[in-house]
Design goal:
disordered C terminus, 12% strand, two-stranded parallel ribbon, globular, 227 residues
């Protein structure tokens, strides 16, 4: 554990279930305290009331996720207690309402459905769902290219493939997909960009004895959709 300026450490192992839940629920707010920052400064950036941000900051500090610093110029400042928090998987098991997997999927589903509804309303009539099929060891049919640009700057996009894989190939593909997100994280924010969520979801499907190869994108990317 390497200590940085303002008492911030490189990595902290979380053992309190309340702190683990707060990490999941308040991850975006916590990210605004990467550097020593006052609640009023955060409030101005996110459009929240300063007293509400201060309340949440004090609560997160009480859980050990933020550090409260000495007042500077009459203003209290907070900073993340660490750059990385590591949470044991059994601290929030899947059966917990805020557990690993359960809360992730609920948050992703709710967020994607809101975005999908917005994209669907903007796209208007004429959109098509596409279901492509191939043979094992053969070519997957190429998805047709949309003939119009997207109706919004950040359209909803879903692309799903079902294919029979060995454990080794499954892990390789899942890691390759995650590497795309790792590059996006390393690049950081785009100048003038909007908050966007990109996710990788991979799992072994129920074995119903069917061995078809299929792909079903459900996207509003318009003519920007690569095929």
């Amino acid at each position: 554990m390497t200590e940085q300026t303002d008492g911030q450490t490189e990595s902290v192992r979380v053992t309190d279930v309340r702190a683990a839940r707060a990490l999941r629920q308040d991850v975006r707010l916590l990210g605004l305290f990467l550097r020593p920052t006052s609640p009023s400064e955060v409030a101005g950036r996110v459009g929240m009331a300063a007293n509400l941000v201060h309340h949440h900051a004090r609560r997160l500090a009480g859980l050990g996720l933020l550090r409260e610093l000495e007042r500077e110029g009459g203003r209290v400042r907070f900073v993340l207690a660490a750059r990385e928090f590591r949470v044991p998987s059994d601290l929030l098991p899947p059966e917990d309402v805020q557990g690993n997997g359960t809360a992730d999927l609920r948050e992703l589903s709710e967020g994607f459905l809101r975005a999908y509804g917005r994209s669907w309303a903007l796209a208007g009539a004429g959109e098509e769902d596409v279901y492509g099929f191939g043979e094992t060891g053969g070519e997957v049919p190429v998805m047709p290219v949309p003939d119009a640009p997207a109706a919004e700057g950040h359209p909803a996009h879903l692309d799903r493939v079902t294919v029979n894989l060995t454990p080794e190939r499954y892990v390789q593909l899942a890691r390759e997909l995650s590497e795309v997100l790792a590059r996006a994280y390393a690049e950081g924010h785009s100048e003038g960009g909007q908050p966007c969520t990109l996710a990788v979801l991979a799992y072994r499907a129920d074995d119903d004895g069917i061995r078809s190869l299929s792909r079903s994108p459900n996207s509003f990317l318009g003519s920007a959709l690569p095929v």
